[in-house]
Amino acid sequence: MMSIKAPWNRNKAVGQKKGFSIKQIEIIRELLKNKKKTMELALLNIGIDTMLRYSDISQLKISDVLDNKGEIKKEIKLIQKKTGNFHLVLLSENTRETIKLWLVESKKNMQDYIFTGKTKSQNFRKDKLSRITYAKIIKNWASYLQLNQEEYSTHTLRRSRAVHMHNQGVSIEIIRRLLGQKSIESTKAYLGIEQKEAQEINKKYMI
User: Fold this and answer.
1) Which of 8, 44, 128, 164 has the most Cβ atoms closer than 10 angstroms to its Cβ?
2) Domain residues for 186?
C-alpha cells in the first residue's frame, strides 16, 4: 500500500505572511553587504526579481543561470515544480552581479545547487537549501529590522514585489502571469486583495 506524504504545513499555524517593503529590502541589502553574506544577498535578489516559490528557487543550479559563454543569463526558463508549467523569469543587472560574486566566492560547479546550507566546518554542502533553513534566513532578515519574525516566511520574497506591483496599479492578470499562478482568483487570495477590500468596506459601516 502506497504511503501518502503528509503536507509540510500539517499541525502548523499558517496564514498570509507579509512581504518586505522597498525600503526594508534596501536596508537588508546593505546589511548583507556589510556582513559579507554573499549567498544570502544573491538569494534576496533572485527571490525579489523572480517571485519564485521556495520549491523552484531551491532547485536552481549553476547551469540554470550561466550561458555557454560563462555569463549570467538575463532570462531563466524553468518548469515550475508545483504547476508543471514552463515559466520565464528575468534577472536584473544588480542580481546578475550578485550571482557572479557568489559563484566566484563559492567555487561551485555547473551541476551544483546555487543555494546550499553549511556544514559545521562552514563548508558549503552539496545538498540544496532546505525549506527550514530558507525560512530561518528570512526570519533573521526580519529580526534585523526589528520586525515580528512570525509574520515572515518562505513566501515573503515571493509576495514582496507582487504586493508592490499591485499597490502601483499593475493589473492582477500581469501579476498572476509573473507569479506563475493558474487563476486570477488564486492571485487575489495570495495578495489578500479581497480581504483588504472587505476591511475597507467594513470601516465605512462602523456603528
Assistant:
1) 44
2) 22-204
Domain contains 12: no
Query: Do 175 and 191 form a contact (C-beta atoms < 8 A)?
Result: yes
Q: What Å distances lie between residue 174 and 12, 21, 51, CA to CA?
A: 32, 20, 13
- Tens digit of each residue's pLDDT (9 = 90 or more) over 98-127: 999 999 998 888 999 999 976 555 555 678
How far is 78 from 61, CA to CA, in rounded Å?
11
- The answer to whether the predicted template modeling score (pTM) of the entire model surpasses 0.90 is no
How many structural domains compose the chain? 1
* C-alpha cell of residue 207: 456603528
DSSP string, 80-137: -TTT--EEEEE--HHHHHHHHHHHHHHT--TTSBSSEEE-TTSPEEEEEPPHHHHHHH
In this structure, is residue 10 part of a structural domain? no
SS3 of the chain: helix, strand, coil, percent, to 5: 50, 10, 40
What's the average model confidence in pLDDT over 81-102? 92
**Cα–Cα dist 92/46, whole Å:** 9
Predicted confidence band of residue 152 (pLDDT cuts 50, 70, 90): very high
What is the pLDDT at residue 60? 95
Give me the CATH number covering residue 199: 1.10.443.10
Task: Identify residue 59 by its one-letter amino acid code.
Answer: Q
